[in-house]
Every structure is written in structure tokens, then in C-alpha cells.
Design a protein that fits this description.
CATH topology of the largest domain: Immunoglobulin-like
CATH class of the largest domain: Mainly Beta
Strand content: 25-35%
Helix content: under 10%
Shape: elongated
Radius of gyration: 25 Å
Number of domains: 2
Number of strands: 19
Distance between the termini: 57 Å
């Protein structure tokens, strides 16, 4: 009976993987604190099985947190590496609510060729697992036997395949007429629209409203209002506390369809002096917004605006 149950469970898992990775093979990170499976053939077209161009990769998979009630969330960082070892582009997919988050995105790093793709599956307490996949070599077509030399060949004309006014010699993607030198750059779309060497990451826009009160000049501040609004729908809000007398280390919320979520009820007591609160509003492949409050006795906390670049762990003044 146990063997039959395992066979059925294996068949269900295989069928689920085929939904997004057929007929490719899958790589399972196999961690007890989170679920992460990625397609082990990201350099092939999922429909035809053909090898993608040297500047394209198509990572596919999904992740999920094992337990939303434990200490930490999970995140999968996808990094595309160039032939010189440089990072061409990356993005992050997170979950802390036991909900499957899908990775299904074709990336184009034109004109820079891709050498490999790296996956880093991590928990927010720095437990990590890494899996890298090198791009397979492009098949070389042998020349025909005994080729007949052409005397004094005429030079080939300059092509403009997408008819955008820029020849293929200067156009970093001559199959897309919205991509060419001088084109408007669209942040966070995974494409080098203006041919300057990579995509510009988008930024989270959100408003963090706060209101504090003091019972006396020597009392600690109390949270009367703490609310995120005007955020992108589905954005994640991490409330982080540092200091010896924090009421908690981390709480995670998700904004509603209107881009709002209230954080006021997380703080029922007055805040202890010396702690630091960070309100981080984030979404995948986007520079996160950070609002920081330093708690002092007898002072109404002021809001300090910071940002968190892609792949970074510490907020910065500018990104």
C-alpha cells in the first residue's frame, strides 16, 4: 500500500512539472524549509525544443514557502551571467504565504551573449542552496565539401530586418522595431530597449503614512497609524525590527488590489527606545522602497526614505 501511494504521489508531481516544463527535465532543490523546482533546460524553446539565440534564456519553475508561520520567508534569485563573468540581469521571486510563485519569463540580454544562469534559493535567515546551468555550445554546421570560391565577392548590403531605421550593425535586436539606439527604455521589462548594455530595473512606488504620539516628554512613542498605500497590487510588505526590545523581528504582509495594507495593529504597545523599524515594499525584479524610523525617548520618529537594489540585503540612500 505504501509503495502504491508513493507511485501515485510521484505521478502527480511529474504531471504538475509537465505543465510548465514539458518535455524538459526539472531540478529540485530538495530543501525541508521550502519548495523550489526549476527547468534544467532554460536555454531551449519550451515549444519547439530548439536552442535559443545566444542572448536569450527562458528560466521556468516555481517556489513556495514550507510554513508561513515559521521565522522566515523564501526567495529565488535568478541571475544571468555573461561570457566575462559579469551579471547581465537578475530578478527575485519571493513567497512567505505557502503560495506557489511561478517563474516563467524569457530574457533577452542583447547584444551581450549569455554564458550561464544561476539560481539561488534562500531563506531570509541566510540558509541557501545554489544551482547553475551553463549554456550549451551552439552546434557548428560543417562547410559543404569542395566549396567553389567566388572571385571578387560583392559586399553584402546593410540589413534592417525590423525596418526601424537602424541597420543590424548598430541595432542590438534587429527583430524588434521597438528596440534600437535612442529608443525609450522601459524599466524592469528584461529588455535593453535603448541598446546601452542592459535593462534598467523598475522601482516600487508606494506611500507609507505614519502617525505617532507621546504621553510626555520622557515617554516612548506610540504608533497611532502605520499604513502602506498606492503600492503596486500584490506587492509584499516586510516590517523589520532591529534592537534588543523589538516586539518582533519580522512580519510580512501583502497589499490588497488597491495597493493598501494597514500595519497599525502590529504595534499595540509603545515602542522601546533604541530600536529601528524598516518598512520594505517590494516586488520581483524591482528596486524596493524602504521607510526607516529610529525610535528615541521623547521624540516623534521621523521617516527616512531609502531604497534596496536588486539582490542587495542592506538599504541605501540612492539606487
Amino acid at each position: 500500500m505504501l509503495l502504491a501511494m508513493r507511485v501515485v504521489a510521484g505521478a502527480v508531481l511529474a504531471a504538475a512539472l509537465l505543465v510548465w516544463a514539458a518535455p524538459a527535465q526539472a531540478y529540485d532543490f530538495g530543501k525541508e524549509w521550502g519548495y523550489a523546482v526549476v527547468d534544467d533546460n532554460p536555454f531551449t524553446d519550451p515549444g519547439t525544443g530548439a536552442l535559443l539565440p545566444a542572448t536569450q534564456v527562458f528560466p521556468r519553475g516555481r517556489i513556495k514557502d514550507k510554513d508561513a508561520k515559521d521565522c522566515c520567508n523564501v526567495a529565488l534569485t535568478v541571475t544571468v551571467v555573461g561570457t566575462a563573468g559579469q551579471t547581465l540581469t537578475n530578478f527575485i521571486v519571493r513567497d512567505g504565504q505557502e503560495v506557489f510563485r511561478t517563474i516563467d519569463r524569457r530574457l533577452d540580454t542583447s547584444p551581450n551573449p549569455i554564458a550561464a544562469i544561476r539560481y539561488e534559493f534562500c531563506r531570509s535567515d541566510d540558509k541557501c542552496a545554489t544551482h547553475a546551468i551553463a549554456r550549451p555550445p551552439t552546434p557548428v554546421t560543417p562547410p559543404p565539401p569542395n566549396p567553389t570560391p567566388t572571385p571578387n565577392p560583392n559586399p553584402l548590403p546593410t540589413d534592417d530586418l525590423d525596418a526601424d531605421g537602424y541597420p543590424s550593425a548598430t541595432d542590438c535586436s534587429d527583430v524588434n522595431n521597438t528596440v534600437h539606439p535612442g529608443a525609450p527604455e522601459v524599466p524592469g521589462n528584461g529588455i535593453d530597449d535603448d541598446c546601452v548594455g542592459g535593462d534598467v530595473p523598475a522601482r516600487v512606488t508606494a506611500l507609507v503614512r505614519s502617525k505617532f504620539s507621546l504621553a510626555s516628554r520622557r515617554s516612548s512613542p506610540k504608533v497611532n497609524l502605520l499604513r502602506v498605500q498606492d503600492a503596486p497590487p500584490g506587492a509584499q510588505v516586510d516590517v523589520l525590527c532591529r534592537g534588543k526590545r523589538c516586539p518582533f523581528k519580522q512580519r510580512v504582509r501583502t497589499v490588497d488590489a488597491k495597493g493598501q495594507v494597514s500595519l497599525t495593529k502590529l504595534f499595540r504597545k509603545r515602542l522601546a527606545p533604541g530600536i529601528t523599524l524598516d518598512i520594505v515594499v517590494s516586488r520581483p525584479n524591482t528596486i524596493a522602497k524602504v521607510s526607516r524610523y529610529l525610535i528615541r525617548r521623547g521624540k516623534i520618529p521621523a521617516q527616512r526614505s531609502l531604497c534596496l537594489p536588486l539582490g542587495a540585503t542592506q538599504p541605501q540612500k540612492t539606487c
